[in-house]
Amino acid sequence: MPTKLPFGSWPSTITAHDVAAGTKPLGGACFYQDQIIVQEGRPAEGGRNTLVSYSLDSDQPAEQLIAQPYNVRSRVHEYGGSSWALITGRIQDAIVFSNFSDQRVYLQQFGQAAPIALTPDSSVNSDPALRFAEFIQGPDRTVLAIMEDLTATPVRHIVQIPLDGSAAEDATAIRVLTEPARFVAAPRLNPDGSKLSWISWEHPNMPWDGTVLHLAEFTDAGTLEDQVIAGGTDISIMQPEWVDDDRLAFIGDKSGWWNPYIYQLSSARTTRLVDRAAEFAGPLWQVGTGWYLVENQHTLLCSYGTGTTKLARVHAMTGGVEDINLPFSRIKPLQVRDGWLLAGTSSMTQGEQITLVNLQTLEHRAITNSIQQLPEPSMLPSVEEFECSNEAGQKVHALLYRPYQEGYEGTDGELPPFVTFVHGGPTAQAAATLNAAVAYYTSRGIGVVDVNYGGSTGYGREYRNRLRGAWGVVDVADTTAVIKALVAQKIADPARIGIEGGSAGGWTVLCSLTFSDVFTAGISRYGVSDLLGLVQDTHDFESQYMFSLVGPYPEAADLYEKRAPINHVSKISCPVLLLQGDEDRVVPPAQSEIVAKALAERGIPHAYILFAGEQHGFRQSANIIKALESSLAFYAQIFGFETDVPAIELS
Would the keyword Nucleotide-binding be found if you checked this record's keyword annotation (predicted)? Predict the structure, then answer.
């Protein structure tokens, strides 16, 4: 017989330390000889990113390739991405990477103790003015990359960096290949090195709004002369990849869905390969993000879907789609070699992994796991794709995780408390995978619902565009609609409904607490509270993001003030926990401090915790632990259940 205990008070073996210390962020990966190189985060080292080599053919221990103090992380577009590349062939094999602290590019040769700088120190008041990312191997002992230049008005170029170190003290040795653009991404050389493609976009667009695809002859000197072959201000082009010297694949959403296309140079003709109401790409928050790869001249290996994704083989001539059945809720192909696919995968039992898949037999094995010690299966919830309608009759998507621990159930007649997760972005998506933070709650008897409100990706451009001009309205309406549906179906206790989110999700938290009455507690992690402050004081990549989410500034200044929770704190009547990093450049601490002060003036129970040395998102183990334990203690105090973490004091 199951033991009956109040929801929230079930004893759990999943601790905050397990969630933090036992989880390492995984980045890209590639084959190298008889090894696989993986980018991994190290929460115990202040969130440092390094590269680790795993042997394919033996039980040799993993080897770290980039030692401290180097941190393999780019700040291009502030969110970085694609911060390293393997260089092989005409020189000694090596790794090129961007170092976080100084944003210089370094060359780490295998077997050498220290890396060699390839680009100059560009720091101005300790803030690098030149930043680099998305490296690809170029001709004649060079690499091509994105260069972000913040010395004046921010611009980006595709550049060519010599590998001999001649640019380490002389920035003029870096060849600028492309005309300045506000943003660029995805440089790709065709197989014979005669053509270069890339994408660009300008303010006020974000890359999911509209990008253009460039094509240029690659010459030996000067700036390349290019032509635009696809895209526009309202068509989003993603991830160009060369199939051969005459065909360039890319993902475009002209139809309303990100589907694959082929551009043929010899005929100047574009062909849509697949016509499906499914997404073959997603939002480009980090440069270098990929959703497919070229398997050979005949086929592409693509990840596609809506709420979950699957792998498919798409024929580059006919557009035929063959699904490849694998037991993953999400999959991202990274590289293929000799019939083996290297992929980033997610599942409800294993979490995120770097996985090796035999494309003929479909046998697969994990190279490394994000979650180092998997929770006991008896502690893990299942996920349900939940749908309801908002007041306008539009469909809203969410992922539902009911309280679960084998051998336990709530007391008779009791409904469980629920925590509403609101993803950041807001142009992003909550994905179905083993999430230790979700299991941390559900194994204690607290339900979790992860809402993909209007504006989320994964459901086509029309769904994504529902948030245009309506941030703080549509996201709040859709999130409250999900909670009302859970309450109406007697899944959740209406008196114990929490909501939490970070960054843009923190904005929706504060807006929901301000403009609705369905939530009884809220947690904002580095959340946006003041739109005027954000639009006036944030990094370049998102500096005009608000123009589409709210309205043009300063023309719509009144709307910015009307929407901002900071101007309506008097409407918040439930307790609030604020968690903030003191080095956050995306959402500065001042935003959380203003909310805390306003709550204090009104006598609303709250706590404000400032984490030293953290930027936009918490990376240090001790801080991840404190944030999670503080969140549980906060809910326990408000919802009235006992828990095993230190109490926090509410002012």
Answer: no
The burial class, CB within 10 Å (0-12 / 13-18 / 19+), for 382 is exposed
Q: What angle do CA 262, 264, 267 make, to 5 degrees?
A: 140
Residues 631 and 637: their CA atoms lie apart, in Å, by 10
| pLDDT tens string 244-272 | 999 999 999 999 999 999 999 999 999 99
Q: Which residues pair with 608 in a beta bridge?
A: 578
CA distance 499 to 421: 6
How far CA 70 is from CA of 30, 64, 637, in Å, comes to 20, 12, 42
Contact 127, 540 (CB under 8 A): no
Structure tokens given for 198:
């890339």
Q: Which residues contact 354 (CB under 8 A, 6 or more apart)?
A: 26, 29, 36, 38, 334, 342, 343, 344, 345, 366, 367, 368
Burial 407-444 (b: 16+ CB within 10 A, else e): ebbbeeeebbbbbbbbbbbbbbbbbbbbbbbbbbbbbb
Cα 505 to Cα 586: distance, rounded to the nearest angstrom: 13
Q: How far apart are CA 13 and CA 378, in angstroms?
A: 10
Say yes or no to pLDDT of 145 above 90: yes
Does residue 303 have a pLDDT over 80? yes
pLDDT of residue 90: 67
CB 294 within 8 A of CB 250: no
Q: E strands, 99-194, where?
A: 105-109, 116-117, 123-124, 127-128, 130-137, 142-149, 155-162, 175-176, 183-189
Count Cβ atoms within 10 A of the Cβ of residue 534 and give its class: 0-12 exposed, 13-18 middle, 19 or more buried: buried
Selection from 346, 336, 482, 504 nearest residue 424 by Cα? 504
Phi, psi of 591 (to 5 degrees): -65, -45
pLDDT for 22 beyond 80: no
Q: 347 forms bridges with which residues in the sheet? A: 351
Distance CA 417, CA 9 (A): 11
DSSP 452-515: E-TT-SSS-HHHHHTTTT-TTTHHHHHHHHHHHHHHHTT-S-TTSEEEEEETHHHHHHHHHHHH
**To which H or E segment does residue 39 belong?**
strand 35-42
pLDDT digit string (tens) for 578-603? 999 999 877 889 889 988 998 999 89
Q: Quick check: 243 and 262 in contact, CB under 8 A?
A: yes
Tell the burial category of 570 from Cβ atoms under 10 Å away from its Cβ (0-12, 13-18, 19+): exposed
Distant-in-sequence, close-in-space partners of 358: CB < 8 Å, separation ≥ 6? 339, 340, 341, 364
Instruction: Using the predicted structure, report yes or no on whether residue 91 has a pLDDT greater than 80.
Output: no
pTM for this prediction: 0.91
The answer as to CATH 3.40.50.1820 being correct for domain 376-639 is yes
Let me know if 176 is exposed, middle or buried by CB neighbors in 10 A (0-12, 13-18, 19+): middle
Asked if 278 and 265 touch (Cβ cutoff 8 Å), the reply is no
* DSSP bridge pairs for 160: 144, 175
Give the C-alpha distances (Å, rounded to integers) separating 60 from 130, 244, 346, 614: 39, 37, 25, 35
Per-residue pLDDT tens for 409-434? Answer: 999 999 999 999 999 889 999 999 89
Q: Which residues pair with 98 in a beta bridge?
A: 105
Check: CB of residue 199 under 8 Å from CB of residue 214: yes
Residue 573 has pLDDT above 90, yes or no: no
Contacts of 158 (CB under 8 A, 6+ apart): 144, 145, 146, 147, 177, 178, 184, 187, 196, 198
b/e code 628-649 from CB counts within 10 Å (16+ = b): bbbbbbbbbbbbebebebeebe
Helix and strand counts by DSSP (H, E) for the chain: 10, 40
The pLDDT assigned to 21 comes to 67
